[in-house]
Automatic annotation (TrEMBL):
Residues 10-172 form the AAA domain. ATP binds at K18, G19, G20, V21, G22, K23, T24, S25. GO terms for molecular function: ATP binding; ATP hydrolysis activity. Keywords: ATP-binding, Nucleotide-binding. This is MinD/ParA family protein. PANTHER family: CELLULOSE BIOSYNTHESIS PROTEIN BCSQ-RELATED, SEPTUM SITE-DETERMINING PROTEIN MIND HOMOLOG, CHLOROPLASTIC-RELATED. The keyword ATP-binding applies. Pfam families: AAA_31. It comes from Thiovibrio frasassiensis. CDD domains: FlhG-like. The keyword Thylakoid does not apply. The lineage of its organism: Bacteria, Pseudomonadati, Thermodesulfobacteriota, Desulfobulbia, Desulfobulbales.
Length: 252
C-alpha cells in the first residue's frame, strides 16, 4: 500500500463503561490480528487524557493527539508505525482537560482524523472508561460499536448504562458484545444471553455476539512485557479467540 492509496475505512469504537475490563489489551491484539490478515489498521488511543496504548505496546511517543488539538500540529506527524500495516495514533497522559473537548475541538479533531484515515482498512478506537463526552463522541463517529464486558455484575451494569445513553441520546441501535475474562465458553454464552435479555426487554435492542475471550495469564503477561500476547503466545487460548474475533470483524 502506498501512503496515497485511498480506502474507505471501517471505523470501530471499543468501549466498556467500566474501566479495567480489557479494552486496551483487546484493541492492541485485535489490531495486530487484523494486520496479520493483510488489513491496514490504525489504532487511535481515544483515552485522550489518560492514554495507555503506547504503554501496552512499549512505544516511544514523540507527538500526540494533544499537540494537534492545542497547537494545530499535523495529525499525521503523530502516527507511530508498528509495522507497515499497523499504525498507532497515541494520546497524552495526565492531561485532564483532554478528556473533555469543546464542540469546536471535537470538530477540529474529526476533520484532522478524516484527513488521515482513508489510508487504512480499519480504524479502531480504544476509548476511555465511563460515559464521558469523548467516549460518546467517538462512539457516534464510528460505524461499528463494540462493548466489552466481563462476568462481573458491575461491568454488566456499566455496559448497560453506556448502551442506554448511546441509544437514547445518540440513536445508536447496533452493538457488538465482547465478553472478556470468561472461565468457560458456557460462562461467555450465559453472560451474553443475560445481557441480551436485559437489552431486549428494556431498550428493544438485540446485540450481536462478537466473542468470548478466556481468562488467560498470557494477557496480563503481554501487558507486563509491553508486547501483544498474539505475538508472545500465538498458540494461547486468548490468541486463538482474538484471531476468531478478527475474522468476525472482517466478515461484518
Ligand atoms: N482475558 C484476560 N485474561 C486475563 N487478564 C486479563 C484479560 N483481559 C484483561 N486482563 C487484565 O486486566 C487488566 C486491565 O486490562 P486493560 O488495561 O486492557 O483494560 P482497560 O479496559 O483498557 O482499562 P482502562 O479502563 O483503565 O483503560 C490488565 O492487567 C490485563 O492484563
Amino acid at each position: 500500500m502506498t501512503a496515497k492509496t485511498k480506502r474507505s475505512p471501517k471505523i470501530i469504537c471499543i468501549s466498556s463503561g467500566k474501566g479495567g475490563v480489557g479494552k486496551t489489551s483487546f484493541s492492541v491484539n485485535v489490531a495486530t490480528a487484523l494486520s496479520q490478515k493483510g488489513k491496514s489498521v490504525l489504532l487511535i488511543d481515544g483515552d485522550l487524557g489518560l492514554a495507555n496504548v503506547d504503554v501496552v505496546l512499549g512505544l516511544n511517543v514523540r507527538h500526540t493527539i494533544q499537540e494537534t488539538i492545542e497547537e494545530g500540529r499535523e495529525l499525521a506527524s503523530s502516527l507511530v508505525e508498528i509495522n507497515p500495516r499497523f499504525h498507532v495514533l497515541p494520546a497524552s497522559s495526565g492531561v485532564p482537560e483532554m478528556a473533555t473537548l469543546s464542540y469546536e475541538e471535537q470538530a477540529f479533531l474529526t476533520n484532522s482524523l478524516e484527513e488521515i484515515i482513508d489510508r487504512f482498512d480499519y480504524v479502531l478506537i480504544d476509548t476511555a472508561a465511563g460515559i464521558g463526552d469523548s467516549v460518546l463522541w467517538f462512539n457516534t463517529w464510528s460505524q461499528i460499536n463494540i462493548v466489552i464486558l466481563t462476568p462481573d455484575p458491575t461491568s454488566l451494569t456499566d455496559a448497560y448504562a453506556l448502551i442506554k445513553v448511546l441509544n437514547s441520546r445518540h440513536e445508536r441501535k447496533h452493538f457488538h458484545l465482547l465478553i472478556n475474562s470468561v472461565q468457560s465458553k458456557k460462562e461467555g454464552q450465559d453472560v451474553f444471553t443475560n445481557m441480551r435479555m436485559v437489552l431486549e426487554r428494556f431498550l428493544k435492542i438485540t446485540p450481536l455476539a462478537l466473542g468470548a475471550m478466556p481468562q488467560d495469564k498470557n494477557v496480563s503477561m503481554g501487558i507486563r512485557q509491553q508486547r501483544p500476547f498474539l505475538l508472545g503466545a500465538p498458540e494461547s487460548k486468548a490468541s486463538l479467540e482474538i484471531i476468531a474475533v478478527a475474522d468476525r470483524i472482517i466478515a461484518l
